[in-house]
Amino acid sequence: MSPVAPGASGDGLLIAPAAPIVAVEHLAKRFGTIEAVRDVSFAVAPGEVFGLAGPDGAGKTTTMRILAGIMAPDGGSAVVAGIDVLRRPEAAKGQIGYLSQAFSMYSDLTVAENVAFFGDLYEVPRNTLAERREMLLRMTGLEPFQRRLAEHLSGGMRQKLALCCTLIHRPRVLLLDEPTTGVDPASRRDFWRLLLRFTREGVTLVVSTPYMDEVSRCDRVGLMYAGSVLALDTPDSLPATAGPVVEITSDHPLELQASLRQRSDVWAAEVFGGGLHVYPRPDGPDARLLAETLRRSESAVGHVEVVRPGLEDAFIVALLGAGPDGGSHAS
Ligand SMILES: Nc1ncnc2c1ncn2[C@@H]1O[C@H](COP(=O)(O)OP(=O)(O)OP(=O)(O)O)[C@@H](O)[C@H]1O
Ligand SMILES: [Mg+2]
Question: What whole-number distance in Å separates Cα of residue 196 and Cα of residue 176?
Answer without folding.
Answer: 13
